[in-house]
Write a structure and sequence with these properties.
Chain lengths: 144, 144
DNA sequence: ACAAAATCTTAGCAAAGGTTAAACTTGTGT
DNA sequence: ACACAAGTTTAACCTTTGCTAAGATTTTGT
């Protein structure tokens, strides 16, 4: 795994920036979901969902605004930009594929939910495709 | 996660601590591997492996020392404590299972390597067991 | 209308992990 | 012996993500 002496070791590129991107994805995904469910998304709802203080939410949402993913007027509800919506949709799609895949493997609902949230940020396009195909094959297998 | 018996420190912070545990696991796993390959582990080897500066390595290794996972004398090579070795073994086992699983799914070596690095920290015991069983079943299938 | 409740912002702190620059230690070659 | 290269540490700083405390705003109930 360490790759001998002079390996590029691209596997370990998960830096601070990558971690920040994961948080951004989790947030936009959650914002989209809350808006779809409640009509609007308030910071308090995110704080409750993620189990963090509302102050942390404010700061993270400020970062999303800075990065052009979200918009919100002072004391107003949080909304997504077109870019934010795109990211949210892509994240949710990936999340759903990972979740379905774990379910196909026989994992329980609760664990599949938890694990898929952790895994979704670390699956490449190739792996995601393999997951999707596996789910499709399993689904066809059931239709006997 | 990293201790159990010798962790008298604050039990509050959550997500930040989870992330720190992942880094600790990556480090002890890498240290064990480098020692196994080269006989000793120097900070420079870790810096090269993870693609970060040696200063970052020094600081992270200091944290491992503080947490009782690693030991090193000034300007000396890095070694693992019994606790560090245990964590390294468990991490490597989990890593190998995830890697084999992705390979069984038909993922290419390079991508399986990268993805397994990211995924290994997010699979529960239940999912890991399912991965292992899948690999075993696939291996048996090949022996026809 | 107005106080209370809910929500949001600002200020200030900590830990983890990242950086560069500069100083220190160790090992090697001539 | 001594200089130089390689490796390590320290200092100073940044960002992300977490916290509490305290202040500001909006909503709600009477």
């Amino acid at each position: 795994m360490a790759g001998g002496d002079t390996s590029p070791t691209r596997a370990f590129d998960r830096t601070r920036h990558d971690h920040a991107s994961e948080t951004a994805e989790d947030y936009v995904e959650a914002i989209a979901e809350i808006i779809g469910r409640d009509g609007v998304c308030r910071g308090a709802a995110l704080a409750k969902l993620f189990g963090v203080s509302h102050v942390t939410v404010t700061k993270t949402v400020n970062r999303l605004k800075r990065e052009g993913l979200a918009v919100a007027e002072p004391y107003g509800p949080i909304e997504l930009t077109a870019q934010g919506k795109r990211l949210a949709t892509a994240s949710r799609r990936r999340h759903e594929i990972v979740f379905s895949f774990l379910k196909s493997l026989g994992i329980s609902d609760a664990v599949a939910l938890t694990d898929s949230e952790g895994i979704e940020h670390h699956v490449s396009a190739e792996t995601l495709k393999a997951f999707r195909r596996f789910v499709e094959r399993e689904d066809r297998g059931k239709n006997d």
